[in-house]
Specification:
There is one protein chain. The chain is about 40% helix and about 15% strand. It has a 4-stranded antiparallel β-sheet with strand order 1-2-4-3. The protein is of the alpha+beta class and about 210 residues long. It folds into 2 domains: about 120 residues, Gyrase A, domain 2, CATH 3.30.1360; about 60 residues, no CATH class. The protein binds flavin-adenine dinucleotide.
Length: about 210
């Protein structure tokens, strides 16, 4: 799994938005310590949380399973553009079937769990899918044989308020291990100066 932070809103945009409410622009230190404290106080402590929506982040997420994809997209207050199997399954036609214990080779296409029985079953499913595609079945039909472990990628944009909710839910011990790994990785990829807005939403026991 790989996460790249493609773009983010500087903190001074959020502090400017907050200062709009009180016409207190003259007190700004342009996204410095005073403004950072203001954002935390108003956005987090006073629960005037809509001000946090002025901060947004765009990530490129690679190598997550389709099992995790269907969990990420439950976070409705964010935007997604996902690699389409309808258009990209031809990538499987260009390769040879994997040995059922060739975890290193198959890892290019599937997320491994570390459980040999499960991972071999995923490799079998991948080989079955290759055979179906090579026999001339169209992507639109063949995709119904995809294993949940099949890797995908997406561009994901989310505002700070919604990201707090995502991190709180998905760093929890009760979340699926793969999305928990993703949530922790996303936090670590945030700009250092933004992390203070999110640290209280991380589940420390995860
Ligand atoms: C441990 C765990 C187990 C789960 N198990 C299941 C499961 O078995 N089956 C299943 O279907 N899902 C399951 N989910 C998914 C869960 O129900 C949510 O769909 C998902 O976590 C997204 O959360 P959210 O709605 O807060 O996020 P978002 O959709 O991003 O919404 C953010 C916030 O906006 C507000 N909001 C958004 N839409 C509405 C609305 N229509 N009405 C009112 N307020 C709204 C809410 O305050 C919400 O918290 C699970 C999630 C977790 C973390």
């Amino acid at each position: 799994m790989e996460v790249t932070l493609m773009h983010y809103t500087p903190l001074n945009v959020c502090s400017y938005a907050i200062r709009t409410c009180w016409n207190s622009f003259d007190k700004s230190d342009n996204g410095g310590e005073k403004d950072k404290a203001l954002i935390d106080r108003v956005g987090n402590k006073y629960k005037h949380s809509s001000t946090l929506e002025h901060l947004s982040f765009s990530f490129y997420i690679q190598g997550v399973s389709r099992a995790v994809l269907q969990e990420i997209v439950r976070h409705r207050i964010s935007s997604f553009s996902v690699k389409s199997t309808r258009y990209t399954l031809k990538e499987l036609k260009k390769i040879e079937p994997f040995r059922e214990d060739d975890y290193n080779g198959a890892e290019r296409f599937i997320v491994l769990t570390g459980n040999e029985e499960v991972d071999s079953a995923s490799i079998k499913a991948l080989n079955n899918l290759q055979a179906i595609l090579k026999s001339g079945v169209s992507n639109d039909i063949a995709k119904y044989a995809l294993p949940e472990s099949y890797k995908t990628e997406l561009t994901w944009s989310i505002n700070a308020r919604s990201l707090q909710n995502f991190l709180q839910l998905r760093t929890s011990k009760s979340a699926l291990w793969e999305i928990r790994d993703l949530a922790n990785m996303i936090y670590n990829k945030l700009p250092k100066e933004h992390q203070y807005l999110f640290k209280d939403y991380l589940n420390k026991n995860s």
